[in-house]
Amino acid sequence: MRVKITVVGAGNVGATTAEYIAEKELGDVGMIDILEGIPQGKGLDIFQRGPIEGYDSKVFGTNDYKDTKDSDIVVITAGLARKPGMSRDDLLFKNAEIVKEVVENVVKYSPDSILIVVTNPLDAMAQLAYKISKFPKNRVIGMAGILDTARFRTFLAMELNVSVENIHATVLGGHGDTMVPLARYSTVAGMPITELLPKDKIDKIIERTAGGGGEIVALLKTGSAFYAPAAAITEMIESILKDKKKILPCCVYLEGEYGINGLYMGVPVKLGRDGVEEIIEIKFNQEEKEAFNKSVAAVRELVEKLALG
Questions:
Q1: How confident is the model over 155-188, as pLDDT tens digits?
Q2: What is the pLDDT of the chain when averaged over all its residues?
Q3: 3-state DSSP: the chain helix, strand, coil percent, rounded to 5?
Q4: Which of 136, 151, 222, 296 is 20 to 30 A distant from 257 in Cα terms?
Q5: Domains (range + CATH), the chain
Q6: CA 135/CA 133 separation, integer angstroms
Q7: With left for phi above 0 and alpha for psi between -120 and 50, is residue 259 left, alpha or beta?
Q8: Phi/psi at 274 (5° precision)
Q9: 187-188 vs 191-192, strand pairing mode
């Protein structure tokens, strides 16, 4: 039987994710949305690219969760998008209602699936999905750090005028203004960026990275980022389905790691066929630890608002 991947939400992030999955032939893709005709139309459009681009993945759209039955992976992108001036926190309660309903349907029709949560505010939504689904923690994963790291790598490449492929970086913590880009663990062809850039420039790049999503929202005026988020989701799916065991920053449930208990946070993990196969702990200096703890406090505040503790 072919791998089946369901993308919940046929907006820009969901549809682009479905497109990338199909292009890489990671499995057959179903898009589901409450809007009638939208997932069906976009699904058919993506499917019809197959003969031109040379992929055989089947892509379909639906409004009925029965059609998503027995999915191997379910990606949750459904929710309200940020608008200019809107913080991720503003989305909290409305998107919590949406995610709760989605997860209940996922549990009903795909009880053995791996859940990838993308809806914002991401860390709190991942924790909500974990609580509602009652899935093992290795099968509920938030997508955040890969996107944040990609932004950090892009801005570093722009500043240094080098290939993005030469840059390896790490961004931990919550997905928002308190994220923690770790300059000390970021390199250009193996050389620490702290040896190549002065601290003031690194600090400006870190600040721009933390506001990376908001910068795009402000430019678009009526939407938010979707190309890079979709690519980040697809990298996670590929690492899981191909059992690549990539080390990627993801939002996962911590039980003692980094001194944190009972909270979803962005940290490096090994992603393989079982989902999260290992949480990688790295050592912080005092400045990094303080920044990480600040991020933890911001995420915990959201979780407590939803009474998920």
A1: 999 999 999 999 999 899 998 888 899 999 999 9
A2: 94
A3: 50, 20, 30
A4: 151
A5: 4-142 (3.40.50.720), 145-305 (3.90.110.10)
A6: 5
A7: left
A8: -95, 10
A9: antiparallel
pLDDT at 89 (0 to 100) = 65
DSSP state of 173: S
**Other C-beta atoms within 10 Å of 1: how many?**
6
Residue pair 68/109 in contact by the 8 Å Cβ criterion: yes
| 14 DSSP 8-state letter | H
DSSP H helices, the chain, are: 12-23, 38-47, 50-53, 92-109, 122-133, 145-160, 199-210, 212-220, 227-241, 286-305
| DSSP structure string for 35-57 | SSSHHHHHHHHHHTTHHHHT---
| Both tokens assigned to 174 | 């919550």
Q: What is the pLDDT of residues 121-145, one digit of tens each?
A: 899 999 999 999 999 999 999 998 9
Residue closest to 24 by CA, chosen among 54, 52, 45 = 54
Is 175 a known active-site residue? yes
Classify the C-alpha dihedral 295-248-185-283 as positive or negative: positive
Q: Taking the CA of residue 52 as centre, how many other CA atoms within 13 Å lie in the half-sphere pointing to its CB? A: 5
